[in-house]
TrEMBL record:
Gene3D superfamilies: Aspartate Aminotransferase, domain 1 (3.90.1150.10), Type I PLP-dependent aspartate aminotransferase-like (Major domain) (3.40.640.10). Residues 74-409 form the Aminotransferase class V domain. This is Aminotransferase class V-fold PLP-dependent enzyme. PANTHER family: CYSTEINE DESULFURASE, PYRIDOXAL PHOSPHATE (PLP)-DEPENDENT ASPARTATE AMINOTRANSFERASE SUPERFAMILY. Residues 49-71 are annotated as: Disordered. SUPFAM superfamilies: PLP-dependent transferases (SSF53383). GO terms for molecular function: transaminase activity. Keywords: Aminotransferase, Transferase. The lineage of its organism: Bacteria, Bacillati, Actinomycetota, Actinomycetes, Mycobacteriales. It holds the Pfam family Aminotran_5.
Length: 418
């Protein structure tokens, strides 16, 4: 059964405002289920749990009880665990991905002082590279760089055979480029890393979580980073570790932190109102297929299968429609050095250049046609591929609520440049 897109669109109240949203990379639309979950959590986070019982006429006792806010924290851990096929005791919660990245980098310092090396992506998101690149200031630590294909934006897995050796302690991989949509071969990279070293593979899977299922064991990741806001959830991020035996090998984020628990990397409690939106966000992904049954993990797997098929269809329709215009440059897709788009692993995101027209003008024309895209933010890979020299690019990214009609509307607006 194909994804019921009309039903999925009904899960987003914001779509009724007359705009066509093609900016999932910047501001994903928030499902009504998430908005309601956050509102309910804010209202009830200070309330007593149902475990409290009346004693006499003037008091309450709560043996083992507490605030409802604690329930939201626990439910957030379980939801993230279900999303990646893990257990809740391996989940670290944080306010945003930048904070968690700095925390992980700091926790690895003692592990890296013994002459280790770290492998990063040369043109990966600077916010992902930054905290780990700073580790080269430690005595004896070497940072090595994996290079992208500047024709396609893809991330070749073969180069890791030369980069990884016995000194490698950490390999950082971005699962998909947020502006180009190219997906990294995480499983192939992880197999190479684990066959040649004892290094951990750290994967930022935030971008792909909105489009396909994630299985930690299958992809070989040792640590997975997820930003819930990237798939329409609240401003909460999470780290998921392969197993709990990894925690004693990390430095705690605060004095007196437990040695072997995920909470050693958490800087403090998070707003329980926001945490109350994490489980609804995951439940939303699990419910995209209406007739999915079983546990939440099983429903996530079933829904992800249909979602991935639909997103692949939309991606090809988007590329084919824009290529048909002629003269338009899709970065990493058109051009002499581009590869076969039908063989590339992609999520439905493209960055386009209209020759002779700067990106701001293209963006404004699209806004005039009630199409919400973005002028591509500064990105090292786009710059290496010539986007700035061409006057900038406009990024288009799709969500599960988008349709072929949205793409056709975009195509007509871009075609107006002649």
């Amino acid at each position: 059964m194909a994804l019921d897109v009309a039903r999925v669109r009904g899960l987003y109240v914001s779509l009724s405002d007359g705009w066509t949203y093609l900016n999932a990379h910047e501001l994903p639309q928030i499902p009504e289920r998430v908005a309601s979950g956050v509102a309910t959590a804010f209202r009830t986070s200070a309330s007593a749990t149902s475990g409290q019982v009346a004693t006499g006429t003037h008091g309450l006792t709560a043996p083992g009880g507490g605030r409802r806010g604690d329930i939201h924290t626990d439910s957030a851990r379980r939801a993230i665990a279900d999303l990646v096929g893990a257990s809740a005791d391996r989940v670290v919660l944080g306010p945003n991905r930048e904070t968690l990245l700095r925390t992980v980098a700091d926790s690895l310092r003692s592990r890296l002082r013994r002459g280790g090396s770290v492998i990063l992506g040369r043109c990966a998101d600077p916010s992902l590279n930054g905290p780990f690149a700073a580790l080269d200031a430690l005595d004896g630590v070497t940072v090595r760089w994996a290079e992208p294909d500047l024709g396609t934006g893809e991330w070749p897995a073969w180069q890791y055979r030369d980069l990884v050796d016995g000194s490698t302690r950490l390999v950082v991989v971005n699962a998909a480029h947020r502006l180009l949509g190219t997906v990294a071969p995480v499983r192939d990279i992880a197999e190479t890393v684990h066959s040649r070293s004892r290094a951990w593979v750290f994967v930022d899977a935030s971008t792909v979580a909105a489009y396909r299922g994630i299985d930690m064991d299958d992809c070989g990741a040792d640590v997975v980073l997820l930003d819930c806001a990237a798939f329409g959830g609240p401003q909460v991020s999470a780290l998921v570790f392969r197993d709990t035996t990894m925690f004693p090998r990390l430095d705690g984020a605060w004095e007196g932190a437990p040695v072997d628990r995920a909470t050693k990397l958490e800087l403090g409690p998070l707003p329980t109102g926001l945490l109350g939106g994490v489980a609804p966000a995951v439940d939303h992904l699990a419910g995209l297929k209406e007739d999915a049954r079983g546990s939440r993990r099983n429903r996530l797997i079933e829904s992800a299968g249909e979602l991935e098929d639909y997103m692949h269809f939309l991606s090809l329709h988007l590329i084919d429609s824009l290529q048909w215009l002629g003269g338009l440059h899709l970065i990493g897709i058109t051009g002499e050095t581009a590869g076969d788009v039908y063989r590339q692993d992609r999520i439905p995101r493209v960055s386009l250049v209209v020759p002779g027209v700067d990106a701001q003008t293209v963006h404004q024309r699209l806004v005039d046609n009630r199409l919400i895209t973005t002028v591509s933010p500064r990105d090292p890979l786009l710059e290496q591929m010539g986007a700035r020299e061409a006057g900038g690019s406009v990024t288009v990214s799709l969500g599960p609520f988008n349709t072929t009609a949205d793409i056709d509307q975009l195509t007509r607006a871009v075609a107006s440049f002649g």
